[in-house]
Amino acid sequence: MKRELSMLVHQAEFTIDLGESGYLIGFTEHDDYPDEMPYGWHCGPAGPSSAIVLPTTDTGPLQLTLQIHDSPPAPETDDAWEPAEEISMPAETDRVHLATVDPGDVMDAWPLEEQPLRVHHAPGQDGWIRMRLYCQTDDPEPGIGDHGERHLIQLWPAPATPPVHPMIGEDDLQARAQYAADRSGLLADYTFDLPAQD
Hints:
Elements: E1 8-17, E2 23-26, E3 43-47, E4 50-53, E5 61-69, E6 85-90, E7 97-102, E8 105-108, E9 128-137, E10 149-157, H1 170-189
Parallel strand pairs: 5-10
Antiparallel strand pairs: 1-5, 2-4, 2-7, 3-4, 6-9, 7-8, 9-10
């Protein structure tokens, strides 16, 4: 059986200025922090239709290439890329949204000069998008400033399948648990009971 080749439909390349907590990408507007952080991985779910990406660079520039394909593209063969990670997410819209995450703030990061990128589903498809992320960093030590970091994100319509991530260690599991506890504490601070009305 002959396998059809993937076709690159759209591509955008630009630099984004990162906040301390990476960036969000997906198919819905972003206005809040994710409930979970995928420490130990480069990406993970941030909500029903988006992903959080955790770069090496903390507060600095990142070269980002976004590609829309009509089917799964062939794996990248350049050894400079770290092993790819993949997740599936349902698309609330067909438009790709991008936001950076700073302490207490989530800001739209799509450049004004770039046309929006959209994923178009074929008739009968169920609305799921597969995301593949490649990362490369000249300076792998986390920190502030230009680390020569670049990401390639490939998106294409595809049914939901299990994610692809590296194994994580105990330190990452503890960091995830601490983030979840801190997040719950912040939400509790904004929750209070109103007196019952007669």
